[in-house]
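Researcher: Sit down with what I've pasted below and flag anything odd:
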Amino acid sequence: MNADLPQQPTPYHGVLHRYGHLLDLPEHTRPITLLEGDTHLIPVPRLAETLGGGFELFVKFEGLNPTGSFKDRGMTAAISEAVGRGAKAVICASTGNTAASAAAYAARAGLKAIVLIPQGKVAAGKLAGAVAYGAQVVQIDGSFDDALALVVEISNRHPIALVNSINPYRIEGQKTAAFEICDTLGRAPDWLCLPVGNAGNITAYWAGFRQYEALHGSGLPHILGVQAEGAAPLVLGHPVKHPETVATAIRIGKPARGEQALQAAEESQGRIIAVSDDEILAMQKRLAGEGIWVEPASAAGLAGLAHEIAAGRFHPQGKRIVAVCTGHGLKDPDIITKHMVAPQIFPPRLDVLEDVILRD
């Protein structure tokens, strides 16, 4: 090889290629990938200082996945399994991110995608994704939980693959985020903070950390799961019939994997808490001040960390903490644009521009 030529980086082929040997997937699985995963751990020391300082804080920014959310990790596994057994169509219920991800991976595989969404409860950026990827979108006059019950029933009656997080292969794919964190840090963090909606992600992370600890002695984190106050069934101890929160991705009143989420929190010696919409939006703004724009739900994990520190229930000094931000801000831009002041219009003259940008 000519030493003067730059070496080409090793190609990245997605989470099934990198971690498939650690995942419990059937032999018939046929990989369908959009090169998901390999998202970065972004250090945010200034934010850590505003929270009291004396600890390391990283953001696992899952908004860098192909469709802009963590759902792609599980969807590559679910769609790959479905294709391998000959499925011709897939279906899911969704508040948005699952819909976009299922539609994209189904399109990649040449399958039909059907998504059920609750009426008026899906952010425009997410719905646009599902439509752009060619999914058949069915809106129902009901909640996400109603939609999930329907897709479970229809998948039991017809040869349509269900790709919600109750599909075990979704969890297998989503475990890879925990593997990446351990590979990057060299061990598990002391604490992992993340949003909790339908509870598949917290379940997957805990399964991943446990598996990596058994294989590599990487340690186990404590887990802080965070729900929105208006959609906090795991905190309240009962389903919420009409969940309400600006964090649309976690606006779920009856999590499909609620029991497993509670078990993950207990086994990790962590907890699940709820924070207000105001706290979530404030943390979304603080993250944007670090150059990381996330959808509101993605800020919930860090909002929960800030809440616990302020309340004196969490002492982070000397700890290494990872906060999972699950989706990109472009997934739900309405929360920003509807409060945005329209830019003023000025004549195209240098003296005017100088006056505008240099004034005190």
